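Researcher: Please translate sequence to structure tokens.
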Amino acid sequence: MTVARVNAKGARRWLSGHPWIYRTDVVERPLMEAGAVLVHDQRGKPLGWALWSPQSEISLRLLDRDPDASIDQAWWDERIASAIARRTPLEDHTNAFRLIHGEGDGCPSLICDHYDAWLVVQFMSAGLERFREEIVTALRSLVVPDGVLARNDVPLRSKEGLPRETVLLHGDVPREIEVHEYGVRYVAAPWTGQKTGAFLDQRENRHFVGTVARGRALDCFSYHGSFALHLARKATHVTALDSSGPALQRAADNAERNSLTNISFVEANAFDFLREKEREGTTFDTIVLDPPAFAKTRAAVPGALRGYKDINLRAMRLLAPGGLLYTASCSFHLSKPLFLEMLQEAAADSGRRISIRAITGQPIDHPEVLTIPETGYIKGALLEMMD
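Model: Translation complete:
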């Protein structure tokens, strides 16, 4: 009743270190609703326990390789405690970080972000929803938060046959929370903001770029100004650029919160702005390109590459001699090799000599597991104009 049988291809995925088995590789479905099931190969050998999602293309998500394990409260307590322990070094630098990064922490389809005294969670699969009570109990016991909010409003839940909703699971969670990040302060919006309220995955890169920023700086796709705030601590002046007026208003509020007066806010399309400044012959000493995902599907990659190359080429042409460009992509479907190849082609077309100062990725609270490519999506590079 609670056993799923998979073919050799599905079994090999687990053996190679990837936790997902797709619907097409399940040869015998368990006769039960979503939850935890024991998985056997075609010969009847037990492979371990998995989350079972009857409607999902990803039918099975590996939980534990031990067939004798019990997926109960104690199991979730131990797994979540292990994830929390890995974040201890961050507590010296910030009050906002990812507590559980899904498959990266061995908790497939579970996201939990920590904002000061509150938690925001996302249950991304039907199998995981079966353990909502155990997970919230573990979080309340281990973290003792003032409130737990479920941002279950992501499209992925529809594919799992789950409702999309934002609901309070424990205590209360404010509409706005002040985040402290390496001395910079900004406001997160857990009920309505992007992701779970803020972009925590670029935290270390923002701090890094802020330490090397100088001169006239430009922050494209600024959103709420997270990069701009770090840039402004060392640059003489920062232009924060975004196509959203409300986002820039929030950025301006964040600048005021930090008593920063050397940031100007420009509402414009980044592609148009860069073209205009190139025509004017304007130069910048520091530029940040951190756009939203251009490639949300594999089919969108060719078009996305053209977009990435366009903005990077124009940014390279706007750099003053010795200037720095930090450029990033959060598109999972755009691989690191493709990202670097795109930068190489843009540099060649710019006609300038550009060196790589650093290649960046995700912080320790967003672990990228080598055998699970889906756990990693951010790739970045700090480039220096050599002429």
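Researcher: Any highlights?
Model: The mean pLDDT is 96.
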